[in-house]
């Protein structure tokens, strides 16, 4: 615990009241003075996204703090997350004045701001929106380096040893009369982001303007004794601010949150094994209450859990009204995922230091800015969207007659957000071998959960091939149909109702729609997929001793009954099926 200096004067309530009255008078005066001539708030743009970086400044978000000081530090980082979104990507035209307050607006609890450190009358006190001076200082320093004209800038009333104020490179604001304002004769762009450890401010311009020194002279008042800590640790327990500060900001050192969507048994096990006391889980619904198997996560005993029930039920209701296949379905599902991500984001505690995120929620959480200032791991359940689309394009070139392979592509903003988020993530956790191989050393490969074996049913006189998917191009339908028509004498059973419509390659074949339970009587399971993320029935077949023919894209574990082909190919598939159906006539490919 820090102890205050004996020379330091105890703050009093009348001083705080006088300060409050004085600031209100200043706010009213500036508000009236700028009626009709306030600078505008600028929108986000893309015109300068590839312009040269004229300046970049960085500052650490987290320092070594005591449990008593951590809550206000976490509040500061949360305030920076919110404020950074207001500045990231804005573009200012020549002559335009960028005002910090006009761009950000007032910091209030209603907007999501929390208590953070604020230097006020010689004390570091809890204040809503406190801690934004870190952003303000970096904006000022970057503006200097980029050659912008500094119209208004104010320094702190106290110089903290070792701070930027000692070099006259700090800046502070106070709504609305203490502001930070820049302008330039050339267009410029601001980018603000939070990594897991740093706040980054970047200015892009199309000019090579030289660095300018501050145009606004700064006069510091005579310095007085500085506090040895903030309200939670300065030791002045008799101060009127202290009890409320301790009550609202109990000592802590942070926790992890698990932001989850559809349950995979592999992820369920991993999350339970890596949860610590004090962590929190977020699931779409209470799986037990709503009897939704996909949401029945095994939350460890004693762990707090929250739900996005309204968003999840709305998504489920909408999903039932959608077609089984098509671009409209995919767009609606993405909107549903975005709504769940927004719900989770609102419930996150600022003191959360680490996240574990289901991949489908990742791009939406990244765009919301809640991943900034935190480390996070990702539960990989599919190809990254840009790689997924590349593979679909490859399949479309191989099967141009397909009516489904080219029907959906995600928006560029979603692609970009997921790409950036995956690059910033820590561990990429998956049981899928192909996904793990794609990400290399960054992937954490966990074992598939092998299901309980089926009780085998005697195979009919005619071999039965089981295709555990709808008749769609991405599942290898065209290659499978071509292989079957090349002279393979077997009955084919498939699942699902979706197909390729007028381009359906199964027309005229000896095939029928089956049930998952009929796998027990199959001779072999065949899945020559271009895209397959969760091959549950293939895993069941392997566990039950049924031969499986699949592509590498299925991500299956090594097994004596698994026959793997590099990619969908009708000729190679026909040869492999023949070797499985007639092992005495050919060499099995393992």
Account of the 3D structure:
- The structure is a single chain.
- This protein is an alpha/beta fold and 590 residues long.
- It folds into three domains: 13-248, no CATH class; 255-445, Rossmann fold (3-Layer(aba) Sandwich), CATH 3.40.50; 464-581, Rossmann fold, CATH 3.40.50.2000.
- Helices cover 31% and strands 17% of the residues.
- The protein has 16 helices and 22 strands.
- It has helices at 13-33, 70-87, 100-104, 133-146, 242-248, 265-273, 287-290, 309-320, 327-347, 362-368, 385-398, 412-424, 433-439, 477-484, 536-543, 570-581, and strands at residues 52-60, 91-92, 98-99, 115-120, 123-128, 149-152, 181-183, 188-194, 198-205, 255-259, 280-283, 304-307, 352-358, 375-379, 428-430, 443-445, 464-467, 491-494, 511-513, 524-527, 548-551, 562-565.
- A seven-stranded parallel β-sheet has the order 12-11-10-13-14-15-16, with helices on both faces. It has a six-stranded parallel β-sheet with strand order 19-18-17-20-21-22, with helices on both faces.
- Helix 9 crosses helix 10, helix 10 crosses helix 12 and helix 14 (477-484) crosses helix 16.
- The radius of gyration is 30 Å and the shape is elongated.
- The termini are far apart.
């Amino acid at each position: 615990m820090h102890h205050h200096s004996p020379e330091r004067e105890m703050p009093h309530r009348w001083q705080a009241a006088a300060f409050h009255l004085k600031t209100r008078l200043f706010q009213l005066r500036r508000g009236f003075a700028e009626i009709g001539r306030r600078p505008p708030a600028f929108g986000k743009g893309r015109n300068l996204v590839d312009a040269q970086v004229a300046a970049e400044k960085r500052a650490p978000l987290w320092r070594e703090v005591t449990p008593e000081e951590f809550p206000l530090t976490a509040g500061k980082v949360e305030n920076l997350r919110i404020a950074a979104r207001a500045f990231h990507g804005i573009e200012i035209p020549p002559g335009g004045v960028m005002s910090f307050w006009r761009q950000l607006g007032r910091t209030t609890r209603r907007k999501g701001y929390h208590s953070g450190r604020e230097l006020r009358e010689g004390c570091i006190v809890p204040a809503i929106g406190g801690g934004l001076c870190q952003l303000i200082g970096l904006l000022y320093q970057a503006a200097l380096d980029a050659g912008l004209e500094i119209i208004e800038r104010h320094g702190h009333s106290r110089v903290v040893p070792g701070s930027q104020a000692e070099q006259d490179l700090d800046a502070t604001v106070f709504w609305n009369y203490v502001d930070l304002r820049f302008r330039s004769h050339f267009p410029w762009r601001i980018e603000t982001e939070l990594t897991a450890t740093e706040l980054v401010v970047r200015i892009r311009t199309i000019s090579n303007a030289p660095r300018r020194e501050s145009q606004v002279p700064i006069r510091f008042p005579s310095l007085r004794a500085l506090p040895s800590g903030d309200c939670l640790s300065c030791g002045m327990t008799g101060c009127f601010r202290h009890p409320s500060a301790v009550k609202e900001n109990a000592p802590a050192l942070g926790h992890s949150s698990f932001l989850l969507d559809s349950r995979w048994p592999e992820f369920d096990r991993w999350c339970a094994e890596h949860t610590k006391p004090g962590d929190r889980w977020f699931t779409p619904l209470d799986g037990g209450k709503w009897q939704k198997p996909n949401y029945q996560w095994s939350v460890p005993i004693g762990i707090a859990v929250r739900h996005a029930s309204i968003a999840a039920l709305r998504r489920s209701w909408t999903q039932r009204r959608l077609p089984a296949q098509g671009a409209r379905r995919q767009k609606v599902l993405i909107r549903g995922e975005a709504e769940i991500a927004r719900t989770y984001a609102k419930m996150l505690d600022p003191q959360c230091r680490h996240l574990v995120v289901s991949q489908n929620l990742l791009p939406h959480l990244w765009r919301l800015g809640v991943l900034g200032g935190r480390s996070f791991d990702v539960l990989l359940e599919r190809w990254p969207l840009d790689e997924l689309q590349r593979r679909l394009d490859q399949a479309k070139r191989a099967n141009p007659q397909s009516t489904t392979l080219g029907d959906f592509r995600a928006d560029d903003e979603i692609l970009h957000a997921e790409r950036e988020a995956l690059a910033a993530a820590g561990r990429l956790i998956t049981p899928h071998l192909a996904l793990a191989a794609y990400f290399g050393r960054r992937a954490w490969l966990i074992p598939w959960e092998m299901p309980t074996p089926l009780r085998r049913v005697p195979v009919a006189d005619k071999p039965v091939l089981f295709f555990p998917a709808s008749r769609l191009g991405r599942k290898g339908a065209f290659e499978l149909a071509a292989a079957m028509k090349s002279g393979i004498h077997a009955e084919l059973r498939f699942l699902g109702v979706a197909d390729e419509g007028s381009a359906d390659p199964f027309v005229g074949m000896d095939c029928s729609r089956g049930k998952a339970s009929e796998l027990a009587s199959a001779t072999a399971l065949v899945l020559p997929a271009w895209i397959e993320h969760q091959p549950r029935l293939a895993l069941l077949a392997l566990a039950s001793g049924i031969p499986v023919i699949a592509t590498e894209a299925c991500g299956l574990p090594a097994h004596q009954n698994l026959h793997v082909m590099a990619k969908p190919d009708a000729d190679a598939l026909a040869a492999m099926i023949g070797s499985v159906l007639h092992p005495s006539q050919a060499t099995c490919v393992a």
